[in-house]
């Protein structure tokens, strides 16, 4: 019986011993491995602001994310770690002085910047941690050496470094990269961070309603070359190739007055906001001052050697500025009829001039593909802008901002500039010869082409929001669809254009 019981117990005890050993030497639970793997995958491929590094995983799980971020920074910003001196100087100048009388927006911008700096995200905290942990990384990322990768990680500092490696680094690259939060200048890192924000802003322009043709006015017997709206917004004047100046009622479109006196095409016209005067200039080389109370010419200004193509009035001084085929810009005193300055320097016909009350007070565009900014007091050129490739036929000064636009022919043929130094702000494209530009206070930039094409842009971003075609008057040739002049009324809600079909068209917002 004992043998039987022992023999029967031995097969039971035999397989039980390996089962105990398997429980002692078995694999770890899969749940821990799965959780750790998911943490690493999330850190590598899905870093976002909602991730809480304090309550999710240990510190060792951040190392793959640091390596991934260092590789991304090195590949995207390797060529932009140190900006050229010229760009740094322009960024330090920022937006330049404000237009006199305008509200100072620098304080508001500083408050917005400080608020942005105060918004901590997980990505920013991760970069801050890399400042102190860069020296502990021993694996080189990509083709770069470990030393260069650690320098590439030092791009963010809160005014004090958290790691010994960051404080002891004295290389120019690391010092240039450690500028973001509270750094000495912050220009480089701000430019890199704002790159994506600027792209988003360009892709999302402000909403503007479309414009539609409201009225067509006929009356001229030649191409309508210039138009101006009077300050009270009750009437507007036009000049044309029939040597006539016609004054129209803005509300009804009826002809109120016709002025004769020029013996050639009228190319420039302006209404004074300080005097009851209307100024006109034409290809007969004469500037005429019309008294709107008697409807007669009271002064004439002579001195141009060839036809006059453009005319502008200074908003605060008794000064008339003209430009013409003699490649000069002439400044006239309204009262004495004397030429105060003859501004020379252009090598081609001056096709457009504009005036403003702050520097540069005179801006001119020429057929030599340049734009010149002039010092009115000294009578000399301040800056020559050579970005255009073909003749500059149109200029437009923004009514509220300290900027202006210029138009020519070619690729990116419409450009906006920041005063007073003439810094290029934006490029826009209108695939034709741009004859006229107009901008209103709502940020709508209108461009009229020589082929009759009309294009409306958002002034801030340069994104076009409407493209249209000028319809010639019945009986006109298709080639007579060109737009030569344009202006917004004083409210900015009506657009007046003149073209080669001898008509005046008024557009309104839909």
TrEMBL record:
<comment type="subunit">
    <text>Associated with the spliceosome.</text>
</comment>
<keyword id="KW-0508">mRNA splicing</keyword>
<feature type="compositionally biased region" description="Low complexity">
    <location>
        <begin position="1"/>
        <end position="21"/>
    </location>
</feature>
<feature type="compositionally biased region" description="Low complexity">
    <location>
        <begin position="140"/>
        <end position="150"/>
    </location>
</feature>
<feature type="region of interest" description="Disordered">
    <location>
        <begin position="1"/>
        <end position="26"/>
    </location>
</feature>
<dbReference type="InterPro" id="IPR015943">
    <property type="entry name" value="WD40/YVTN_repeat-like_dom_sf"/>
</dbReference>
<dbReference type="GO" id="GO:0000398">
    <property type="term" value="P:mRNA splicing, via spliceosome"/>
</dbReference>
<keyword id="KW-0677">Repeat</keyword>
<feature type="repeat" description="WD">
    <location>
        <begin position="301"/>
        <end position="342"/>
    </location>
</feature>
<feature type="repeat" description="WD">
    <location>
        <begin position="217"/>
        <end position="258"/>
    </location>
</feature>
<dbReference type="InterPro" id="IPR045241">
    <property type="entry name" value="Prp46/PLRG1-like"/>
</dbReference>
<dbReference type="InterPro" id="IPR019775">
    <property type="entry name" value="WD40_repeat_CS"/>
</dbReference>
<feature type="region of interest" description="Disordered">
    <location>
        <begin position="97"/>
        <end position="178"/>
    </location>
</feature>
<feature type="compositionally biased region" description="Basic and acidic residues">
    <location>
        <begin position="116"/>
        <end position="125"/>
    </location>
</feature>
<protein>
    <recommendedName>
        <fullName>Pre-mRNA-splicing factor PRP46</fullName>
    </recommendedName>
</protein>
<dbReference type="GO" id="GO:0071011">
    <property type="term" value="C:precatalytic spliceosome"/>
</dbReference>
<comment type="similarity">
    <text>Belongs to the WD repeat PRL1/PRL2 family.</text>
</comment>
<dbReference type="InterPro" id="IPR020472">
    <property type="entry name" value="WD40_PAC1"/>
</dbReference>
<dbReference type="GO" id="GO:0071013">
    <property type="term" value="C:catalytic step 2 spliceosome"/>
</dbReference>
<dbReference type="InterPro" id="IPR001680">
    <property type="entry name" value="WD40_rpt"/>
</dbReference>
<keyword id="KW-0853">WD repeat</keyword>
<keyword id="KW-0539">Nucleus</keyword>
<keyword id="KW-0507">mRNA processing</keyword>
<comment type="function">
    <text>Involved in pre-mRNA splicing and required for cell cycle progression at G2/M.</text>
</comment>
<dbReference type="Pfam" id="PF00400">
    <property type="entry name" value="WD40"/>
</dbReference>
<feature type="repeat" description="WD">
    <location>
        <begin position="259"/>
        <end position="300"/>
    </location>
</feature>
<feature type="compositionally biased region" description="Low complexity">
    <location>
        <begin position="157"/>
        <end position="178"/>
    </location>
</feature>
<feature type="repeat" description="WD">
    <location>
        <begin position="343"/>
        <end position="384"/>
    </location>
</feature>
<dbReference type="InterPro" id="IPR036322">
    <property type="entry name" value="WD40_repeat_dom_sf"/>
</dbReference>
<keyword id="KW-0747">Spliceosome</keyword>
<dbReference type="GO" id="GO:0000974">
    <property type="term" value="C:Prp19 complex"/>
</dbReference>
